[in-house]
Amino acid sequence: MPKVGITTTIPVEVVYAAGWQPVDLNNSFIASSNPRLLVEEAEMAGYPRNICAWIKGIYSTVRKDEQIKTLIAVTQGDCSNTHALMETLQLTGINVIPFAYPYDRDYDMLKLQIEKLMEAFGVNWQQVYEARQKLNKVREKVRKLDEMTWRSNLVSGWDNHFYQVCCSDFNGNPEEFNKRVEDFLKGSNETAPKQEKIRLGYIGVPPICDDLYAYLEERGARVVYNETQRQFTMPDSVGDFVEQYRKYTYPYGIFYRLADIEREIERRNIDGIIHYAQSFCFRQIEDLIIRERLSLPVLTLEGDMPNSLDARTRMRVDAYLEMLR
């Protein structure tokens, strides 16, 4: 099964319908044995220091995986540095297929982009819908896991993050991932409810640091809502395939995202919001809108390199949780 790298969530049903294996390069990068080294290797190749570490990590991940010869690069609706990323990878011989989410969520423009992707992989709508039917069965179980996080208090913030973020590519093997989810659900149903008194929401891109969720739970707080990761499960499931990716909030404007965030804050009875912003990312600017719009206390955290929380960030988290108590 040929591999195709993806720079963020795309209509992955098209890839599976064609018999290819998608690889979410973000997940591969951060789950590698030494993600920091991948960033440094990109800098050795010529990437500037003041560019997002995720972009540099993706670059090195593709260069190291000899099975990835094709890349689907999201040129609108994700990182603004993706253009240069795809050009530097084209220079090394990688075949790049661009995909763009229309900023205004225009149905016809999005349908055109999906059909261009289908043409590139040689599949038709019937094949795409058949692939979607299989993937939706897995997504449904992960949505159940999410519900067990905030309604039954049986799932940790990290597990909620992990299983949802894996829905971008289903770890390249939906059947195997489905089994893993089933086993996790079974085990979680046999545990006692978690007792953390402070309920948090996490918004923004997934964190580059590896111990945020564990640290929060050590301090008596738990993330019961992971905004972007939840979107990877396509939570607003609808019949129309194009509409499914119109309702997917992450690639569109901040105000569309905020409407979803505000609904979930209310539904999940959340006490405070952690807004994670990656260093050198244009989304840092959106923090001022988030603070203006949300009525809950917001703690903004910035991460740069793959690492654990530093002392300064831990002190800020401690002070924030103390304020919420």
TrEMBL record:
Swiss-Prot/TrEMBL cofactor(s): [4Fe-4S] cluster
Source superkingdom: Bacteria
Keyword terms, alphabetized: Iron, Iron-sulfur, Metal-binding
Matches recorded under Pfam families: HGD-D
TM ranges: none
GO terms for MF: hydro-lyase activity; iron-sulfur cluster binding
Keyword Ribonucleoprotein: no
InterPro entries the record matches: FldB/FldC_alpha/beta
Family: Belongs to the FldB/FldC dehydratase alpha/beta subunit family.
Protein name as annotated: 2-hydroxyglutaryl-CoA dehydratase D-component
